[in-house]
């Protein structure tokens, strides 16, 4: 790589100042990009839905579109909270049981449309901030997930990417499999 290729990036960071956040050098850039693009794609599909459309059935058997949206919002919130606690060395709260998690999602699906949209937006933003605040060493730390499973922090972006891309399709309002990146389609 030519050292002058990085000059625009260095100049941008200088203009943005010391308060701007950036991914750590060892952050999984490709996976973060897939998660961020998936989040943007989901947000676009959500934005195309009317408020009344949120009550309609999704492509997930038995779930409304509002429930799919609530699932996406609470998924981001859970990951962000766990990463934040990991980053500062705080104890992790016990994971919710699957029944408790489903109850939270069901309750979230009853939120007014504006609140449901805000949940998704704010939780995604919080998750992105937490990813950006992870140091090189943090990316190798283990993050406890719902159900007791743990993964490396570097595994959270692909986990999120799969969730948001699938949810965008599950909304059933024009999301196409052809829009989903090949790496996500090929993932187990």
Automatic annotation (TrEMBL):
Mycothiol-dependent maleylpyruvate isomerase metal-binding domain sequence ranges: 36-170
Domain of life: Bacteria
Pfam families per UniProt: MDMPI_N
SUPFAM superfamilies in alphabetical order: DinB/YfiT-like putative metalloenzymes
Alphabetically ordered keywords of this record: Isomerase, Pyruvate
A GO molecular function held by the record: metal ion binding
Protein name: Mycothiol-dependent maleylpyruvate isomerase
Organism: Antarctobacter heliothermus
Lineage: Bacteria, Pseudomonadati, Pseudomonadota, Alphaproteobacteria, Rhodobacterales
């Amino acid at each position: 790589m030519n050292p002058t290729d990085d000059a625009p990036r260095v100049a941008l960071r200088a203009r943005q100042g010391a308060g701007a956040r950036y991914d750590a050098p060892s952050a999984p850039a490709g996976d973060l990009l897939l998660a961020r693009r998936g989040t943007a794609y989901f947000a676009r599909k959500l934005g195309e839905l009317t408020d009344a459309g949120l009550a309609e059935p999704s492509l997930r058997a038995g779930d409304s579109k509002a429930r799919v949206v609530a699932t996406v919002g609470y998924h981001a919130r859970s990951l962000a909270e766990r990463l934040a606690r990991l980053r500062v060395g705080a104890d992790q709260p016990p994971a919710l049981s699957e029944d408790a998690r489903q109850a939270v999602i069901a309750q979230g699906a009853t939120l007014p449309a504006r609140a449901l949209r805000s949940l998704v937006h704010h939780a995604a933003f919080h998750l992105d901030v937490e990813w950006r605040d992870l140091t090189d060493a943090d990316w190798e730390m283990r993050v406890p997930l719902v159900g007791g499973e743990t993964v490396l922090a570097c595994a959270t972006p692909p986990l999120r990417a799969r969730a948001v891309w699938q949810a965008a399709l599950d909304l059933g309002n024009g999301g196409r499999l052809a829009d989903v990146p090949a790496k996500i389609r090929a993932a187990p």
